[in-house]
Design a protein that fits this description.
- The structure holds two protein chains of two kinds.
- By secondary structure, chain A is an alpha+beta fold.
- Chain A is built from eight helices and nine strands.
- In chain A, β1 and β2 form a beta hairpin.
- Chain A is elongated and about 125 Å long.
- Chain A starts with 10 loop residues before the first helix and ends with a strand.
- Chain B folds into two domains: 118 residues, Rossmann fold (3-Layer(aba) Sandwich); 102 residues, Arc Repressor Mutant, subunit A.
- In chain B, 42% of the residues lie in helices and 22% in strands.
- In chain B, α1 links the parallel β1 and β2.
- The longest helix of chain B has 15 residues.
- Classes of the chains: A alpha+beta, B alpha/beta.
- Chains A and B meet through α4 and α5 of A and α1 of B.
């Protein structure tokens, strides 16, 4: 719980009080020291000083004590009790003046030193989420304030990153959902006049609507995944061979309907650290692409190995291949190649693969030749080989 | 009126086809440029609704090909490409209208009506002749102020005739533009529909007020005065 805002919690006031207390303590100590100086002087020098002249507080010159009196005891030699009382009175007054002047000086000085902090405070409290600056200006030369500003700037960068992701999600979602929504609305309008449709047309329209809805759901899910930040806290050890086998079982019906053969060669003991659901999305998107952009009689081969501290997943196909000029763009969101447009898709699959692999500290690359096929290689840091 | 819809996204193409059919149009769908060229070379259409990004090329190619071939056939580009350069290039390639997706069906239908109107000899939004009134936008017809109840086909037939007043239109042409690919050329569909339409219009084939039959040639709407009063 934060401290409630109280005037005595002010740094300026506290520093002023601190300085005042320090001056008071030092002043009083000085007084005590000075009050005892004659005594120490007498006892530290010859036991019977004859001609010593002491300057007592107040500037009074005193004569040395008679030689037959012993120069010992609490009473300061050569200073009368009245003179001592005067010494303390004026001494304390002097300390009080020092404290007052010191406190005022400290108050002004601290206020001067804290003004960069104050302008930083003002700037930060004037920040609005609609117009966040990329970074704050520099406030003063004080190292502490600059470090604080730098910390704010690091925070601002993170906020910007997050805001960008959110805005992109909103814009992408709106943009990508407009077309299917419009199609859906049209189909809905068609179904409002069922009497003008044959039963087959009604059925076809309904299954078309379902397909459009499925596509929208998939688009939203992909965009949500893309907008998410990595949360390694929930990661676990994932045995990739098992994960790939599960995904292969899911993709097999699609492959069979397209007449594409699926083959796998999986090293059993390859374990990476990550979110199994996300890694499954990576594998599924790569496999589905390899099947979809392929011709009947084609082949897809998945190979999982461990090499030099990396898990290497290679998905190679005998599909259409990707033209060289399109290769730099295939991992961008919503990019769809000339050929790829022949197949239904939202242009998010590979963007998702790239983002998820990157979140897991890995890399994805592609080699492709038109007419021969493509090889997608995903490398992920190995958690442990041979668990 | 017969529309060629060139659109490769199957669910959208089917929705547009059915939606436009409910508006009284006959719609053929081509999913590729090749299919579209083939359809255009074997049948005649009243308007082409053209997507730009197609599997086997760009819609502009079809635009230019059509303009090199036919001066008048209206082309409406319907695409998701919304950059100004695309719109300019599309219109300069010969398109008559450029509609950016997503589009509401009523809007698209209104634009199609506008283009068909402009292309027809009679460009009136509401067609009127001798007390017969036809409003294609609301799909209503009146005869001497009394509402006429016409079927979709009858309405389309009458609209086609009224758009081309005074011209002799063959039964084949009517069949092609109103029935499209569904037409069976070996039936007397047209004769039956013209007969039913005449009955609703109270038209006497011997002394036609609206639709004149020219044996062996076809039909003519708004026959010349001297013949109708003969």
């Amino acid at each position: 719980m934060p401290e409630p805002r109280r005037w005595w919690n002010s740094l300026r006031l506290r520093l002023t009080v601190g300085v005042s207390v320090l001056i008071a303590v030092l002043g009083l100590g000085m007084l005590v020291y000075i009050a005892n100086v004659p005594y120490w002087a007498v006892t530290l020098h010859s036991p019977q000083p004859q001609t010593q002249v002491f300057i007592a507080p107040g500037g009074t010159s005193v004569s040395p004590p008679p030689a037959n009196e012993p120069a010992a005891g609490i009473v300061v030699p050569g200073v009368s009790l009245r003179e001592q009382a005067n010494f303390w009175r004026y001494g304390l007054l002097g300390v009080a003046v020092m404290v007052a002047v010191g406190a005022l000086a400290a108050y002004i000085l601290v206020g001067y030193l804290l003004r960069s902090l104050e302008s930083l405070r003002r700037t930060v409290s004037a920040l609005s989420p609609d117009a966040l600056p990329l970074r704050l200006p520099t406030f003063g030369r004080e190292q502490e304030v600059q470090e604080l500003t730098a910390a704010y700037n690091r925070f601002l960068r993170k906020v910007h990153h997050l805001l960008d992701a959110q805005r992109r999600f909103a814009a992408d979602a709106a943009h990508e959902l407009r077309s299917p929504l419009s199609t859906l609305r049209m189909q809905f309008g068609v179904l409002r006049h069922p009497e003008s449709l044959t039963p087959a047309e009604r059925q076809q329209t309904l299954s078309d609507m379902e397909a459009v809805l499925d596509g929208m759901v998939q688009t939203v899910e992909s965009l949500l995944l893309l907008a998410q930040e990595p949360t390694p806290a929930t990661w676990q050890d994932v045995r990739l061979a098992d994960l790939v086998r599960t995904v292969l079982a899911d993709v097999r019906p699609l492959a069979q309907s397209k007449g594409v053969a699926l083959e796998a060669d999986l090293a059993p003991e390859v374990v990476v650290r990550g979110e199994p659901r996300w890694l499954a999305v990576v594998v599924r998107n790569l496999l589905e692409n390899a099947v979809r952009y392929n011709s009947a009689g084609g082949q897809v081969h998945v190979r999982l190995t461990a090499q030099g501290g990396q898990a290497v997943l290679r998905v190679s196909d005998t599909g259409w291949g990707i033209p060289e000029e399109e290769q730099p763009f295939i991992f961008q969101r919503f990019f769809r190649g000339e050929q790829a447009r022949r197949v239904e898709g939202n242009g998010l699959g590979l963007a998702l693969v790239e983002a998820l692999v990157r979140h897991h500290g890995g890399r994805v690359s592609v080699q492709s030749t038109v007419g021969k096929g493509s090889v997608f290689t995903v490398t992920l840091p190995l958690q442990a080989a041979g668990v | 009126m017969r529309i060629l819809l060139v659109e490769d996204h199957a669910p959208l193409a089917r929705a547009l086809q059915l939606g436009l059919r409910q508006q009284g149009y006959t719609v053929d769908v081509a999913a590729t440029l090749e299919d579209a060229r083939y359809a255009l070379s074997i049948s005649s259409y009243d308007i082409v609704v053209l997507d730009l990004r197609l599997p086997d090329g760009h819609g502009f190619a079809l635009c230019r090909w059509l303009r090199a071939r036919d001066e008048r056939l209206p082309i409406l580009i319907l695409t998701a490409l919304d950059r100004p350069e695309d719109i300019i290039e599309g219109l300069d390639a010969g398109a008559d209208d450029y509609v950016v997706k997503p589009v509401e069906l009523p809007v698209l239908a209104a634009r199609i009506r506008a283009l068909l109107r402009r292309a027809a000899p009679n460009p009136q939004p509401v067609l009127e002749w001798r007390g017969l009134r036809l409003d294609p936008a609301s799909r209503q017809a009146w005869l001497n102020g009394e509402p006429l109840h016409l079927t979709t086909r009858q309405f389309a037939l009458l609209e086609y005739l009224m758009r081309h007043p005074g011209r002799v239109i063959s039964a084949e042409e009517l069949l092609e533009h109103i029935w499209g690919a569904e037409a069976d050329p070996f039936t007397n569909t047209i004769r039956v529909h013209i007969h039913l339409l005449r009955r609703k219009l109270g038209d006497d084939p011997k002394h036609p007020r609206f639709i004149q039959t020219l044996p062996g040639a076809g039909y003519r709407f708004a026959p010349p005065e001297e013949e109708s009063h003969a």
